[in-house]
Design brief:
The chain is an all-alpha fold. 63% of the residues lie in helices and 1% in strands. Strands 1-2 form a two-stranded antiparallel sheet.
Length: 282
């Protein structure tokens, strides 16, 4: 009886040892297999945090003429944020751009629409002459900062006695025609905006030289390389003024501007919009 009892106890100990050994082996297998999986997961999480785009819904909404910014590029995001910051009230300390938008947009918007130009191009005059009007050292002048010959090519009179670049209605019609021609050339509104700044000939040469037609990935001169970023920033501070530190009055200015398209008067000649259909057929 004593021998049977001892054998029974040994069996129990053996069973316990086998169970413990099994648990130990299972644990080791889990430990050795976990790091790769965990590291992959950690890297995915870190990557999501580092790229900043998938976790930044607001940035993902930024666009020009319904053409969005490329995602996943920290350089582009940094440049966009820096340009937005430069257009904040903290930096500009004025609501002049909102006042200009209130005056100009009711005249510019219907012209762009008639020519099939995206509404975002209404921000071009704000970038070109919203804060600082006049004639550039190269000779560009007016709301849309046309060069003299380009202005003449699209129907404006520019001579010693008359400069229609300073007529907001006529210059906006000329700008719409010019932008339309640029889009037909480049098949991209973003590139059309870049070409408006640098000139279509220069942009075509850069596209061929770089074998690249993505504006955001091209190496362009400093002014053109920042041009579309400025347009997007102008759009953002006008459409979302309080987000960038502008007061509620700026919001009301925009609301007044967008409430209805007012009777369109030629600022210089006092003509109404009755001439639009005839002009737009040209």
């Amino acid at each position: 009886m004593e021998l049977k009892r001892k054998i029974k106890m040994v069996k129990k100990h053996l069973i316990t040892c086998f169970v413990l050994l099994g648990l130990l082996l299972t644990t080791k297998m889990f430990i050795y297999s976990t790091p790769e999986t965990f590291d992959n997961y950690s890297n995915e999480v870190k990557g999501a945090k580092n790229d900043g785009f998938s976790l930044d819904p607001y940035f993902n909404t930024l666009s020009f003429a319904n053409e969005t910014l490329p995602l996943g590029d920290q350089r582009i995001k940094h440049k966009m944020n820096a340009t937005l910051s430069a257009h904040s009230y903290k930096e500009l300390q004025t609501s002049k751009l909102h006042r200009q938008a209130e005056k100009w947009f009711p005249i510019i918007e219907p012209i762009l629409k008639q020519y099939g130009i995206p509404s975002d191009f209404k921000y071009v005059p704000l970038v070109e002459s919203g804060l600082k009007a006049g004639t550039s050292p190269k000779g560009a002048s007016g709301y849309w900062q046309f060069m003299p010959q380009t202005a003449r090519d699209f129907g404006l009179e520019v001579n010693g006695g008359l400069d229609e670049r300073n007529n907001i209605r006529k210059s906006s019609i000329a700008a719409a025609k010019y932008i339309r021609s640029l889009y037909r050339e480049f098949n991209s509104w973003t590139l059309a905006a870049a070409a408006y700044n640098i000139g279509e000939g220069s942009l075509k040469r850069q596209i061929l030289k770089q074998s690249q037609d993505n504006y955001y990935k091209m190496k362009l001169n400093r002014e053109t390389a920042s041009y579309v970023y400025k347009l997007i920033s102008m759009k953002e501070i006008i459409e979302n003024p309080t987000r960038y530190g502008y007061n509620n009055r700026a919001s009301r200015l925009l609301a007044n501007s967008n409430s209805e398209i007012k009777s369109l008067f030629d600022i210089h000649n006092g003509r109404t919009n009755s001439a639009y259909p005839q002009i737009l057929k040209n």
